[in-house]
Amino acid sequence: MRAQQGPAEDRSRSSQRRARHRIVSDDPFPFRLDVYGVDVANLVQSVGGWLYDQVKAGWRIDAYIADLDDPRPLQILGVTALSLTSGTSSLDATAVAVDADFLSSDAHMHQEISSILDHGRATVVVYGASRPDVLDQQFGEMTHRLSSAASVFKTHAALAAAIPAPSTTALECFRQATGRIRQRGT
């Protein structure tokens, strides 16, 4: 007959099993999303619910905004708001999201996103109402169904961003890259 193990031995074996399966990392957020946009209101309106759901799923999200006058709407969503002039750091991001209008109008951003795609460094998401002509068929249409919490937080963020009559739908649509973007002028 085998002797029964005490509670201390059970805890010890359990913690050993957990330690074998633990991912070792200095960063508590294993996934990082860098977002680039012209203004906070468009970002909140276009993909605010998706961003909130990604934060709740464990992603660290930094939003680099060209016209950052008030970071509160992004803070409500759990997103770190940074001025675009503070630099960019997508070289080690898991994914990058960029405003479609910004991608079309800013040559430097177009070059950065092209480089990211060419080297397969990150997933690229393009959000916003317009569809720039630089996007080719390699960008597939995607939808995200907002969680109930995301809908509530997006509404509060939209109010903080002074979006008149914010409407929060259950779905947000954007485009995700599966390949390269066309060079300008081709």
- Content of β-strand: 15-25%
The neighbouring-strand order within the major sheet is: 3-2-1-4-5-7-6
What overall geometry do the principal axes of the alpha carbons give?
globular
* Subunit organisation of the chains: single chain
The CATH superfamily bears the name LmbE-like
Q: How far apart lie the N and C ends?
A: 79 Å
Structural class determined from secondary elements: alpha/beta
Q: Largest sheet, described in full?
A: 7 strands, mixed
CATH architecture: 3-Layer(aba) Sandwich
| Count of extended strands | 7
What does this 3D model show about the protein?
The chain has 186 residues and is an alpha/beta fold. The protein has one domain (31-177): 3-Layer(aba) Sandwich (Rossmann fold). The protein is 37% helix and 25% strand. It has six helices and seven strands; from the N terminus they run αβαβαββααββαβ. Strand 1 (31-39), helix 2 (40-56) and strand 2 (59-67) form a beta-alpha-beta unit. The longest helix is centred in the N-terminal third of the chain and has 17 residues, at 40-56.
Quick structural summary:
By secondary structure, this protein is α/β, with parallel strands linked by helices. The chain has six helices and seven strands.
Furnish the topology, listing elements before pairings.
Layout: H1 7-21, E1 31-39, H2 40-56, E2 59-67, H3 72-76, E3 80-83, E4 95-99, H4 100-105, H5 107-118, E5 123-127, E6 139-145, H6 148-160, E7 171-177
Parallel strand pairs: 1-2, 1-4, 2-3, 4-5
Antiparallel strand pairs: 5-7, 6-7
